[in-house]
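Continuing the series of single-chain predictions for the mutant panel. This is the parent chain; the variants come on the following pages.
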Amino acid sequence: MTSRRVVLAGRGIVSPLGVGVGPHWDGLLSGRSAIGPVPRLASLGLAASLGAEVAPELLAPHLGRLPRKQQKLYNRATLLAMLGGALAMEDARLGPGAGDPERLGVVLGVNVLSWDLESMARLLAAAESPEAAGSLDMAAANGFCMRHINPLDYSLKTLPNLAAGHLAIAHDARGPCRVLLDGPVGGAQAIGQAARMIAEGDLDVALCGGTDASLEGLVFASYCGFGLLASDAGDQPGFVAGEGSGLVVLEEAERAHERGAAVHGEVQGFAAAAGDGHLTPTADAAALSRRLARVIERAMEEAGGIPDLVALHADGAPAHDEAEELALARALGSQADGLPRLRFKRAHGDLGAASSAVEFLACSLALEYGMLPAGIVAGGRAPSGPPGRALVLSLGLFGACAALMLGKYPVPAEAARAG
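Parent structure:
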């Protein structure tokens, strides 16, 4: 990355497949899919009703990790982030402040947070102008808000920086607290930016990743209206929405080694590019592929090598799928042909801002165990030996893209001799 090496010291996953890295990995290995009908989404009467939700029975055993009285203050994305953060810090064996609170930061990718759909519908009905149907009457809207909406409740449900703020308070992180409202690329951006802050000496430890609650009614309905979701009838391509969080503890390598941390990998490269403003259904696959190829090339240059496997964004959008294949061919040439491609969203749907973080963590497990879950491998050949480096790709709704390179972290020679 730059002068200081950055390692993965803690992992926390909250996914429709399971809570914790173990249950999530077991779900992937078993070939299980968490995608299915969601009754509350079907009741909306939209063309799409499939989703991948984190079931209450998966969450219940773990909620004791969070302050009971605080839980009622969390929106769905914040609840998932707080649980993922607790799991990651536990895995890293770090307590509040991580030894030096001023050197512990939070960088979190989030999505647009939605107010309750029913409450929003009541507001819109009350705010319609009696003189002009379909037009907003601001005086009526303000009057309804003053009489019927608790401003504290509204702010607790909709401010996008809430999840990062709660994480920072809970773990006594007094370093930079950054929120990235970048949609699906948010998780990858958060990990990459946090890694740079550690590499450049601004932080020693970062709690980073992504969280999302795309199954909330207003967000889900908006995605469906924009033509982003795959229809139940199969006549509209797109993604299947999910929810979850992927939280990562990154740490400066020497510090992690000195305290005896269990290291799960090293962030070796990161690159990202802004989009062109075209929503996914109207994206130009060729233009996107050129942008993505440059991002992949920069990430590989930082890593000093090519990947042994790639986690595709693979959300089901034709332009995205085509652009990823074209970009890999541009960046890797003939070497791209045999590269194993992992399509994690087949198992747990599109987790929005959490997707790339969860997929990054799943790749760390694949490198650690030297195996690939058969059900999500598509294309390429199995590595000739245990994979040592993974490329994780992420694409946004408006053409943004990001790439992370994760590699195994070698045990220092003196530590190996001592062990």
